[in-house]
Write a structure and sequence with these properties.
Elements: E1 4-10, H1 13-25, E2 30-33, H2 35-40, E3 51-56, H3 60-73, H4 77-80, H5 106-121, E4 126-128, E5 135-137
Antiparallel strand pairs: 1-3, 2-3, 4-5
Length: 139
């Protein structure tokens, strides 16, 4: 009995590959449909009906449980990449708002811009012959 049915449809082939790997780790009989087309031409993903994970009908319930279990145990991306030193957000000492941005110094930017232009554009009065490697100055 080689009957397979669609367990889930994805519009992102990477997400489908991750769930496919989870299901294979569980020892379930699964395969992916439209994976290559969606990877090469991602804008066609919706037109072809997305990337589908097909699973054997006898493994369907175990597959649903494996994917839903993994989805419920995933942490929010912000929690995963949150830096412990920046957990305390700054607040405005006057009004208590946490909506703020850090100002940039225009003067420092202009200084480095002028420094770069001067260092590149100052012509010297030294000349160098490329044939005999002689150097001289014109006064």
């Amino acid at each position: 009995m080689n009957e397979y049915k669609t367990l889930r449809t994805y519009f992102d082939s990477l997400e489908a590959k991750l769930d496919f790997a989870r299901l294979r780790d569980e020892g379930l009989r699964v395969f992916i449909v439209n994976q290559h087309t969606a990877s090469i031409l991602p804008h066609y993903s919706m037109a072809i009906g997305g990337v589908k994970i097909q699973i054997h009908v006898n493994d369907f319930e175990k597959g649903l449980q494996a994917i839903s279990y993994e989805r419920n145990n995933e942490k929010d991306v912000d929690e995963l990449f949150q830096n412990p030193s920046t957990q305390q957000s700054l607040i405005c000492p006057r009004c208590g708002s946490s909506n703020y941005f850090r100002e940039k110094s225009v003067i420092a930017g202009l200084f480095f811009l002028i420094l770069a232009v001067i260092a590149v554009s100052i012509p010297k009065k030294d000349y160098h012959c490329t044939k005999c490697d002689h150097r001289w100055k014109v006064t």
